[in-house]
Amino acid sequence: MMNTSNGQTGPVVRPATQAGRFYDDNAQRLSHEVDSLLALHDKDKPQEDVVALIVPHAGYYFSGNVAASAYAKLNPKKPYKRIFLIGPSHYEWFNGASVNSAVDYYATPLGNVEVDRVTSRKLIEADSVFAYRPKAHDREHCLEVQLPFLQRRLGNVSPIVPIIISTNDFHKLSRIAEVLKPWFNEENLFVISSDFSHYPSYEDACKVDALTGEAVESGDVEQFISTIEANATKGIPNLATSACGEFSIITLMLMLDNQYQVKHLMYQNSGDIDNYDHSRVVGYHSFVVVRKETGEFSLSDEDKRMLKEIAFQSIKDSLDGRPVRLQDSSNPILNQKCGAFVSLYKHGRLRGCIGHFGEDIPLQKVVAEMARAAAFEDPRFPSLRRNELDDLTIEISVLTPMRRIQSLDEFELHRHGIYIRKGYRSGTFLPQVADEVNWTKEEFVGHCSQDKAGLGWNGWRDAELYVYEAIVF
């Protein structure tokens, strides 16, 4: 604890333990250094829709230019409610996530940055995978080195939530991501701290980091993990890791859905700095995560025919004891990640209906799996029999990518479905629900909030609202 002059207890401040090591300990020189690095990217336009950055955490001499390329993407005029700083533990292994809920401020030579202790405590209360472990934060540099960049780029830095991740348990990483997901939106900024290849030769680093960077940019967590594993088995001399923040990056990727895109910004390694030793280098990437530009989503007649065929074949294969088979198609629509419902009718009467609401699975896989579920898992009906196949009619409702709205003025009854999310609760009504009831717009949303999301009639008013459309065929 710090004590004030009158003897009363004052705020708890984490000192700048890395000042004079990873960055300058003089405020004037540090400001000049950071501003000079940011100035190298003056021509880069900032973006309004940045939700996350992946940045290195080496000394500024080595990785400052790459880090600056990411911070230059932040719009200094955009206010974030809070900034989640997430990185790996370099000094303590504890098989979980440590949130620094014990301090009020992080100090740097440029001043103090407030910690959002309320949110930090909420994380710890939400799941036992979160805790506060002092040794994980006392000497850790990976979060601290981000603060001067935030201070110089944003001016008044929003309260931070400092999180150190130290576990390779995928189930635990999934739990961490699940708890953080409600905060992953345009109101907050996530800064993921990671260097990349450690200690191979310059040539090997360039090759390995290119593969890892490509996997990160894909946004596909399975591709990222398989790339890391493949790099480790190639026998590359002195390669200790492909990404020291691997588990922090996995956590970020587990929070991504079809609304967001990862964009690569810059790559260097320590061998690029003043002819540094090329026999043993460390790699540095920077990435920005932004909301995708919303384009018109449509299905051609051929797309619809193929999806109907996939649904029917999936049901038939299930009856034959075969696993789900996907088409080896270059058609991007079939691999678009979006939700879908499959309804089965026999002689005009419903025979089963199951859907997946989400943007985490390729469309063709969703349709194949939901067709099987509608045929064999809808609890309202007995499992489909082979002699019913010829009498089946299949109807598919493909859900277009969701779009966040700020007001019900943006919601159109009969055209839009509504998705409501607040914390761990969520619920949806498909657009066609409006055709079955005689509700006003407010009643439609109120019933969804109350009956589907469990938030109460007015719970939607302070929840996240998304709209989408359904292409029914």
Structure, explained:
- The protein starts with 12 loop residues before the first strand and ends with a strand.
- Helix 7 (202-218) runs antiparallel to helix 8, helix 8 (221-232) runs antiparallel to helix 9 (246-255) and helix 10 packs across helix 11 (363-376).
- The protein has helices at residues 27-39, 60-71, 117-126, 134-138, 147-154, 170-180, 202-218, 221-232, 246-255, 301-319, 363-376, 433-436, 441-452, and strands at 13-14, 50-55, 82-88, 96-99, 105-108, 111-114, 130-131, 160-166, 188-193, 260-269, 283-291, 340-346, 349-356, 392-399, 403-405, 417-422, 425-429, 464-468, 470-472.
- It has 13 helices and 19 strands.
- The strands form four sheets. It has an eight-stranded mixed beta sheet with strand order 7-4-8-3-9-2-11-10, sandwiched between helices. A four-stranded antiparallel beta sheet has the order 13-12-14-19, covered by helices on one side.
- The protein has three domains: 13-291, Protocatechuate 4,5-dioxygenase, Chain B, CATH 3.40.830.10; 301-392, Glycoprotein, Type 4 Pilin; 403-472, Dna Ligase, domain 1, CATH 3.30.1490.150.
- Mean pLDDT is 91; it is low at 1-8.
- By secondary structure, the protein is of the alpha/beta class.
Quick structural gist:
The chain is an alpha/beta fold. 31% of the residues lie in helices and 22% in strands. The protein has helices at 27-39, 60-71, 117-126, 134-138, 147-154, 170-180, 202-218, 221-232, 246-255, 301-319, 363-376, 433-436, 441-452, and strands at residues 13-14, 50-55, 82-88, 96-99, 105-108, 111-114, 130-131, 160-166, 188-193, 260-269, 283-291, 340-346, 349-356, 392-399, 403-405, 417-422, 425-429, 464-468, 470-472.
